[in-house]
Predict the 3D structure of the following.
Amino acid sequence: MRRIREILETLGLELHPQKTRLVGLGLGREGFCFLGCYFRVVRSHFTGKRYLYRWPSLQAMKSLRSRIRALTDRRRRAGMRDVREVIADLNPLLRGWCNYFRTGNASEKFRQIDRYVTQRLTRLLASRRHQNWQRRPFHMKEWPHKRFVEQHGLFKLLGTIRYLGLPRFVGQLWVWDLRIYETSPSPPWPGGCGKR
């Protein structure tokens, strides 16, 4: 830590004492949060090797859920509006959040948010019909996520994850293509970069 502090001082920077800590990532038992992402070493399902994964932090998930809750609150402004209008307000929020986190290993978190949005919209529709959500918990079957996406234009997070594709050598550089995978929890190839 002392050596890092010396290097940063030569650059005119200093470490924040409350935010700076050393984390042992080697065994995958510890992780750290940085810029809304949680980083941790995880064993790959495909190769069995360990890679540094990142996904939205708990704080980022909590913040998004509270913003979705505010936009779909049936007691406030969403209660009397058409579902398409509520979805039109939700879509820019979901797109922005998706674009920020979609290059990581966030498919499970995206699935959770898709489910949460469907749940909130279904509760909103159930309250308009004056139906008790607790007594009739099968509304998710009546209004599945697919129906909101196809009929009402809701932005779907799952299926937008981008992983680096297999590298190819162009001139003197390695170039990676971006691939989009529907539900893969991790890329099916090892990461890495460098010259050949």
Q: What stands out?
A: Residues 61-152 form one domain.
